[in-house]
Amino acid sequence: MSSVTRTAAPAVTPLPPGPAAGAPRRSRLLRRANPLAGLGSLVWLVIVLVPLYTLVSSSLMHQDEALDGDPLAFPSRPTLDNYNTVLHSGFFTLLGNTAIVAVSTVAIVLVLSVPVAYVAVRTRNRWSSLAFRTFLLGVAIPAQAVIVPLYLLIGKMGLYDTLPAIILPTAAFAMPVSVLVLSGTMRDVSEELYEAMSLDGASPLRMLLQLAVPLSRAGISTVAIYSALQAWNGFLFPLILTQSEGNRVLTLGLFNFMSQFGVNIPAVLAAIVLSVVPIFAVYLVARRALVNGLMGVGGK
Fold first, then answer.
1. What pLDDT is stored for residue 13 in this prediction?
2. Which residue, among 233, 245, 275, 228, has the nearest Cα to 87 in the 3D structure?
3. pLDDT of the residue at 18
């Protein structure tokens, strides 16, 4: 009898899986959509891409086409002669000097900024806080304001017209921002981890190297990229503190290319393209770490 009752029970008609399952998902997507942000991103993309396209396409033009043609048109007779001209005009010397300045600046900034930020985070007293705030005053001091005393100091040290004359001031002006970023990243490290290592008998140096540095790698990457950009794009210090051809860097070389090539606009643009490629490649490799560090999620 009971088996007959179960057989006679009305069958439940299943709902169509497609629309019922997809509707909530489409609803969530619609709620997340931000047309204003999308429009702003599109405008920003056009503003960035159009100059880049003009830069690359014009560097492939002949001189007459660059002067008389449409700057937004693709070259009718593309040529690499402009790049060949730049590469045989001392470009590799400029590139090598710039790489030395950038790598040395990053090394100095990291070696000095990491322990300074660690001490600022781990030392809790009035003097440490005062020293940290005084150190950050460097963020508000422009390089132009100290260029004359800096010129005299570099001359007294016998470093005028050398690469260290560019490296040392560039590293000094990059350090305040670097300490600020690293201290913010190191504050994200849990206090319980420090206490656990302290109970195990770890020294402050060991806690710095085995705890703070590994958990602050995104902030360290951000500082490295920021310092490299400052060194790569620096113009004031190379202009004032160097003189000879053998110690020039890319930014100063591009300035000289403008007078050396006269009105050869494609050659100047080709030099700009070649100078941008290395630092752009570095940015692509470390892009994720840079974004995480700027967003303050390096230690999480």
1. 47
2. 275
3. 47
